[in-house]
Amino acid sequence: MSRTLGAWDKAKREGRKLSMITAYDFTAARLAEAAGMDAVLIGDSLGMMVGGEADTLSVSLDQMEYHTRIVAKAVSKLLVMADLPFASFEKSPAQAFATATRLLKAGAQIVKLEGGAVMAETVFFLSQRAVPVCGHIGLTPQHVRQIGGFKRQGKTPEAAVKLMEDALALQDAGARMLLMEAIPSDLAAEITARLSIPTIGIGAGPGTDAQVLVFHDVLGLNPDRAPPFAKKYLDGASLLTEALATYAREVRDGSFPA
Ligand code: KIV
Ligand code: NA
């Protein structure tokens, strides 16, 4: 349970792995805390997992603010990270500051934004003004319409060099953490070794300092929508459907209420 950024830095120095899971509501956040996880992420995957959208682009700052508030309220021992949603920060450092501070006021301790070196100026602006930032490189889902799908990144030597440069630029700009999504394991491990800030991986192999997964993927709630790199720890969809079917059947046959 690592509530503070300092605790994350210490874990990296000591080589202790940290666990993070997305949470979009009070109940999920309480489960994550009871399970002894290290962090919750109010991800903009909200739009897909809760909203049923095909990608994250429609998520609004109002939605992120509301979900950050209800998640933050539920936890006291773990780190709370929130995503800056699409089109809420890219225009200028000032726009990013206005957006990020709304999420900090809602209870986030750190905000995450997608983009590499192009975002360094914004990351510097925020980090000089009391806003801790986590970078997000590799597969950046807000760019999915430009990329043309949820595709693995960093596969060519040139792309790998670019990702290393992005990572270093974000760290130099003051980022406190870096998330890497869907990139080769050896590249993620190399970047992790090179950086002094903690790294978080998803679909990036075992070499990062922390791992993150989406709540619904871990619990098997939307098995048809989970990415190939997610690990399912529970067949949640079957178990929950079975319980609901039992309830419906007992109402129909009169055995509930007794
Ligand atoms: O929105 C999200 O859930 C994320 C993680 C998948 C890293 O950004
Ligand atoms: Na996200």
Question: Can you describe this structure?
Answer:
This protein is an alpha/beta fold. It has a single domain (5-218), classed as Phosphoenolpyruvate-binding domains (TIM Barrel, Alpha-Beta Barrel), CATH 3.20.20. It is built from 11 helices and 8 strands. The model has no long low-confidence stretch (mean pLDDT 97). The site of 3-methyl-2-oxobutanoic acid (KIV) has 11 residues, from strand 6. Sodium ion binds next to loops. Its cofactor is Mg(2+). Its EC number is 2.1.2.11. Catalyzes the reversible reaction in which hydroxymethyl group from 5,10-methylenetetrahydrofolate is transferred onto alpha-ketoisovalerate to form ketopantoate. Pathway: Cofactor biosynthesis; (R)-pantothenate biosynthesis; (R)-pantoate from 3-methyl-2-oxobutanoate: step 1/2.
Helical/strand content category? alpha/beta
Secondary-structure element string: HEHEHHEHEHEHHEHEEHH
What is the makeup of the main sheet? 8 strands, parallel, barrel
* Principal-axis shape: globular
Look at the structure and give the mean pLDDT.
97
Name given to the CATH architecture? Alpha-Beta Barrel
- CATH homologous superfamily heading: Phosphoenolpyruvate-binding domains
CATH topology: TIM Barrel
Note the gap between the termini: 43 Å
Q: Total strand count, please? A: 8
The residue ranges in which pLDDT falls below 50 over 5 or more consecutive positions are: none
Q: Could you name the CATH class?
A: Alpha Beta
How are the strands ordered across the major sheet? 1-2-3-4-5-6-7-8
Helix content: 40-55%
Tell me the domain tally. 1
